[in-house]
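Milestone 3.1: sequence recovery, worked example.
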């Protein structure tokens, strides 16, 4: 299998962490890709019309996307019910993944505003609105999810780990740890897992 990815992408990182946790990383060839919202990379666009990463090309040539689909496929490939629990437990893990993924979407929108729009055309209120969504999510994680995070290693906590890692990587200046001591402590501990340390984002 080939995974088209960027070492800075939190969604690609989520896939790689899942692969490591499931013991599947050696079956995946990672292919660095320069996909961005302004220009599609041809190799990805042939597989995924949106041209986004991560995109996973299977051995039979078929492609899977986005990160949520790829992660669930890998879980099924490893026997199932590990990263995506069965029964009622599944919904809690999926909701936590959605919380993290939606906050990541806001992070990336804020990042793109600053990266691709000329300074004279930037809209500070837009960035503030996106980061407000992120901070609200972090407050919910601190208040309502900390015990779940501490007790499980599945797609939910992995998505949260990818979110917090991306904040450290791209938004260290916002001080997301302030006022969230339990979430910060969990993040520091979770970041020490081999699956996390070997997939830490780079430029």
């Amino acid at each position: 299998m080939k995974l088209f990815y960027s070492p800075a992408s939190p969604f690609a990182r989520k896939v790689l962490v899942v692969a490591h946790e499931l013991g599947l990383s050696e079956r995946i060839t990672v292919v660095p890709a320069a996909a961005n919202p302004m220009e599609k990379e041809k190799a990805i666009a042939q597989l995924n019309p949106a041209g986004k990463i991560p995109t996973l090309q299977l051995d039979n040539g078929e492609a899977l996307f986005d990160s949520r689909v790829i992660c669930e496929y890998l879980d099924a490939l490893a026997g199932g019910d590990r990263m995506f629990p069965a029964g009622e437990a599944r919904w809690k893990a999926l909701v936590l993944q959605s919380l993290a993924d939606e906050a990541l979407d806001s992070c990336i929108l804020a990042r793109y505003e600053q990266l691709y729009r000329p300074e004279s055309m930037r809209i500070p209120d837009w960035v503030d609105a996106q980061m407000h969504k992120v901070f609200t999510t972090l407050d919910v994680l601190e208040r309502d999810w900390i015990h779940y995070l501490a007790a499980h290693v599945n797609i939910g906590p992995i998505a949260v780990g990818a979110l917090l890692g991306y904040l450290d990587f791209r938004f260290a200046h916002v001080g997301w740890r302030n006022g969230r001591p339990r979430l910060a402590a969990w993040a520091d501990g979770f970041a020490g897992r081999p699956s996390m340390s070997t997939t830490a984002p780079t430029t």
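The CA atoms of residues 16 and 199 lie 7 Å apart. The beta strands are 2-5, 29-32, 55-57, 63-64.
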